[in-house]
Amino acid sequence: MYIIKKKVQKQPIDQGMVVSLAKLMVGFLIIDLGLQFYEYLIGWYGLETEHLDTLATMMASEKAWSFWIVQMFLGAVIPITIVFWKKTSQNINALLAAAVLIVIGIIGVRFNIVLPPLVVPVFHELPWGNYAPTIKEWMVSVGVVAMGLLIYSFGELLLPIEETSDEVSHNGK
């Protein structure tokens, strides 16, 4: 939001801050990937049929694209590469793209948390389900993102991120 706002207002962007935040963002992403790995490891370690079927649905079925492409590739591999590759690590536009891709990856994570357990029946006597989000569910998701952006915008109006030159001159006297 900071980068987009500064670009729209044609104001200078604090590159050092953006680079530092991008590295911090990827650091948290790597921690999250480790936690996800342990979550999947617990499912495998338990050898419970429901957990194994859920993991198989997420990673090796026709719905595996959301795990491998959206969550892992777009949401993790590309952003980590962008932030740590010398050619793109100082490029504001590339770091903005990395941040957007991580958000897309987070959406993929949520999709993978919800969808596979809904498809795999708890009792094996029941038929396997087939679930796909409806347009209403997609619109609710878009509304939640829009609400987050609106809250950020109001928060920035009430609690400005940067001081203006007038504030600096009043505080400096």
Automatic annotation (TrEMBL):
It is found in: Cell membrane. Its main location: membrane. Pfam families: NrfD. It comes from Mesobacillus boroniphilus JCM 21738. Keywords: Cell membrane, Membrane, Transmembrane, Transmembrane helix. Belongs to the NrfD family. The chain crosses the membrane at residues 21-45, 65-85, 92-118, 138-159. It is a multi-pass membrane protein. GO terms for cellular component: plasma membrane. This is Molybdopterin oxidoreductase. It comes from the Bacteria.
